[in-house]
């Protein structure tokens, strides 16, 4: 399965994506606000988990590549939240892009394609996103997507160490109705 946008293709994982994903995950700037993947094995396990999620649910984090060259840019997608929280069950949208893809609207364009798939193909009623409070770049993308900040749903991530600056997460939400009223063809 592939999802296309003007400049991008979102597609399932291939073995040749493992090395560029690991290289991207070794960049401290890319991983500043994400849970660490400190080894190639950890990166491969993350990819394997995405492949299994895709097989089970029909969606997950897809590889993002350019339509023009097929260059690996990162991963964007939808994912079931697998921990208990006041807002679960839920599907989240997320992204992680190689530094060379930053500042070009890639995250927003790929996320719009994923949101369109989530709302119009999967029929989801709501998609959420969350990030560490200091991750202003991701929060900017969330706002560009039309997501609304929900301070009442901010939470401490149960899979992040208590003393980590990534433990606290701020919540954004987007309903299918809001997406439909704001969607740009």
UniProtKB/TrEMBL annotation:
Ranges where the N-acetyltransferase domain occurs: 8-167
Pfam families: Acetyltransf_3
Domain of life: Bacteria
Record's protein name: GNAT family N-acetyltransferase
Organism listed in the record: Bradyrhizobium aeschynomenes
């Amino acid at each position: 399965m592939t999802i296309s946008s003007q400049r991008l293709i979102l597609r399932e994982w291939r073995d040749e994506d493992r090395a560029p994903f690991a290289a991207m995950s070794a960049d401290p700037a890319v991983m500043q606000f994400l849970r660490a993947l400190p080894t190639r094995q950890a990166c491969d396990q993350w990819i394997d988990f995405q492949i299994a999620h895709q097989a089970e649910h029909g969606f997950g984090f897809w590889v993002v590549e350019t339509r023009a060259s097929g260059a690996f840019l990162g991963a964007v997608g939808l994912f079931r939240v697998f921990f208990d929280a006041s807002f679960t069950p839920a599907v989240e949208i997320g992204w992680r892009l190689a530094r060379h893809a930053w500042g070009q609207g890639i995250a927003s364009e790929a996320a719009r394609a994923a949101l369109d798939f989530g709302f119009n193909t999967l029929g989801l009623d709501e998609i959420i996103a969350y990030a560490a409070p200091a991750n202003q770049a991701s929060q900017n993308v969330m706002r560009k997507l039309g997501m609304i900040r929900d301070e009442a749903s901010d939470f401490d991530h149960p899979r992040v160490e208590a003393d980590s600056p990534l433990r606290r997460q701020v919540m954004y939400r987007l309903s299918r109705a809001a997406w439909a009223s704001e969607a740009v063809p």
